[in-house]
Amino acid sequence: MDKGLPIIDPISASAMEVDREVAQDKLAALKEALSTRVGEGALVAFSGGMDSAFLLWAASAVSTEVGGRVVALTTTSPSTPARDREDARGFTRLLGVEHVWEESYEMDLPEYSLNDRERCYHCKTELFRITGRAAGESDLRWILYGYNASDRGDDRPGHRAALEAGVLTPLADAELTKGEIRFLMKEAGLPLSGKAASPCLSSRVMTGIQITPERLADVEELEGILRKAGAEAIRVRICREADASFFLRVEASPGDMNIVLNCREELQTEGLRRGYRWVTLDLGGYRTGGGVT
């Protein structure tokens, strides 16, 4: 994951000008590649985010056109944002795709809760343990997930877990970028095309601070306050002072900063109530990788 790089508008940045013909050619190549996988049975690891939603839609379309079976699998744990669960449920209902829910137990792994730079590796190892078992039980030959061509430039320990588990990455294989995926979803009239990146709640806890269900609930509650007020590109991060006290740092896109300021009293009250020393707004703005030190 890239570290400390500001993004003025995350959605617009990923949807830079796209060549429609090129994007459509890549979509055709994706569907052609999926036809064999779907024909032999495919399980899609579906998070409720844009990339895995696009992959699931494409696989479902192939199933309708040429036959085969597609199953979506979504895992839940304290690190899963509630809105991702809602988005996943709504999207599979729209497609009419079989949807399996499984509890994930990465929080029980000491190496995960330690929250070092390998946290995502341990999380994805648990995910692909679950998908591997579920695929075997359902007689599905292939496991797919939404890694795409734009992800190659990031440091993603979780992708290493996918490679070790033999999980396929059809979007990256078709050279589809995040901007093209967003463009194609919008062109197809699909929901979630405008959804900003939504990593797990554990990504909000600064590296080295132990992951606990209570801390993840704190993050979700304060981000919920901001989203109810209309903010989208925001993160509430749990940070630690040199004296071991904890505080909350809010990252927001420039367009969302006024919303944060308008919510300052509610945020401060809720933060103090939950045991944090203060709540602060980071003038550097929202950026990917802001939880990595």
Keywords summarizing the entry:
293 residues, alpha/beta, Rossmann fold, GMP Synthetase, Chain A, domain 3, 2 domains, four-stranded parallel beta sheet, three-stranded mixed beta sheet, 46% helix, disordered N terminus
Based on Cα principal axes, name the global outline: globular
Strand content: 5-15%
Q: What is the CATH class designation of the largest domain?
A: Alpha Beta
Number of domains: 2
How much is the radius of gyration in Å? 19 Å
Total count of helical runs of at least 4 residues: 12
Total number of strands? 9
Any guess at the CATH architecture of the largest domain?
3-Layer(aba) Sandwich
CATH superfamily of the largest domain: HUPs
- Give the spatial strand order of the biggest sheet: 4-3-2-5
Span of the ends, CA to CA: 12 Å
**What is the CATH topology of the largest domain?**
Rossmann fold
Uncertain residue ranges: 1-14
The biggest beta sheet reads:
4 strands, parallel
Describe what you observe in this structure.
The chain is α/β, with parallel strands linked by helices and 293 residues long. The chain folds into two domains: 5-187, Rossmann fold (3-Layer(aba) Sandwich); 201-288, 2-Layer Sandwich (GMP Synthetase, Chain A, domain 3). It is 46% helix and 14% strand. The chain contains twelve helices and nine strands. The strands form three sheets. The chain has a four-stranded parallel β-sheet with strand order 4-3-2-5, with helices on both faces. Helix 2 (20-39) packs across helix 3 and helix 2 (20-39) crosses helix 9. It is globular and about 60 Å long. The relative contact order is 0.16.
